[in-house]
Amino acid sequence: MSYSLGAIPSRHDPRDHLVHRYMAVQPETLPAEYACENLPPVHDQGQYGTCVAETLTAIKEWEEQQEWGRSTRFSVAFVYGNRATDGSEPLGEGMEPRAAMKHLRQDGVCPWDVLPGRGTYPLCYSLITPEARTAARPWVIEAFARATSVNELKTAIFHTGPCLIAIPVYESFFTPDASGRVPRVQPGERLEGYHAMMVYGWTADGYLRVQNSWGEGWGDHGHCLLPADYFSLDPAVPEDRRMEAWTIVDRVLAVHGRTITLRIGDRSYLVDNQVKTMDVAPFIKDGRTMVTLRFIAEAFGYWVDWDPDSRTVTIVQPAGR
């Protein structure tokens, strides 16, 4: 059986935001093994080069389940067809992960019911209507960042959830063993192309837990175990020996050069990469993100006072700020 690929290595851009800009990379604090729960169903891209779009919609589906407790399927065709036509990105089959992330931040993604199915790039592009763009706006992402090491990738998975990973695919990748383990590339293997998947955890014996978009008949019911050192994540390494990984970073606040990173449902948060804990985890209500005012204000250096008699909160900016 043949399988389609479809990732195009993202071109170098020194402006990329890196994971360590948003969260403290402290591998000694991570568990020996980890796996995100409540994963979405395995996608099947069939004959199309939609792996980047399959991966990003799967990640958004996981986020929707985590934050809202509901199952929402998102449009692969919208993500795959939504590209700039000014020559800044490829317009044929396949897709650059960074470009897809950029459009997810700018335009969001509409539900599958609004724009169902998948297909070639020209077809998907032609199917995106003004109505689909309007329906996509509620699901924009706040920011995205690139992981340039395995420790950054694990940190991102642990704090933000499943990530996108794109790898060069050699012949042996198509036939993992019965447990889903992908063999290491041997000398002389032919490069078949590049492929994006959703990485959602790791094992204690050095593998990344990955969900593919080739249906449940491939690997271990659509999943595989990829050696964490399969290839380097360093952007300086030649692309045929390099993986790239991206995470969605939502709920980031920045004031006076100080950055706070929050995650829905998690009491831990970061202030300039330092881990802190608040009493109540952020949550979403009626489409709005709710956070504890005192912790946010104090993190930005303000003073907070509560008057129980008048039930008044006063926030004071210290002199000199």
Present the secondary structure layout:
Layout (H helix, E strand, L loop, with lengths): L33 E2 L15 H18 L7 H6 L15 H11 L13 H7 L2 H7 L7 E4 L2 H11 L2 E8 L20 E12 L4 E5 L11 E5 L16 E5 L3 E4 L2 E4 L6 E4 L2 E4 L5 E3 L2 E3 L2 H7 L3 E5 L4 E5 L5
Antiparallel strand pairs: 1-4, 2-7, 3-4, 3-7, 4-5, 5-6, 8-9, 9-10, 10-11, 12-13, 14-15
Describe the structure.
The protein is α+β, with helices and mostly antiparallel strands and 321 residues long. The chain has two domains: 19-248, Cysteine proteinases (Cathepsin B, Chain A); 252-316, Copper Amine Oxidase, Chain A, domain 1 (2-Layer Sandwich), CATH 3.30.457. It is 21% helix and 23% strand. It has seven helices and 15 strands. The strands form four sheets. Strands 1, 2, 3, 4, 5, 6 and 7 form a seven-stranded antiparallel sheet that branches. 40% of the residues are buried. The mean pLDDT is 89.
- Total domain units: 2
The shape, in one word, is globular
**How much beta, percentage-wise?**
15-25%
Query: Helix/strand-derived class?
Result: alpha+beta
Q: What is the number of helices?
A: 7
User: What is the level-2 CATH architecture name of the largest domain?
Assistant: Alpha-Beta Complex
Rg estimate, integer Å: 21 Å
* Percent in helix: 10-25%
Q: Sheet with the most strands?
A: 7 strands, antiparallel
What is the class of the largest domain in the CATH system? Alpha Beta
* Distance N to C terminus: 64 Å
By CATH, the superfamily of the largest domain comes out as Cysteine proteinases
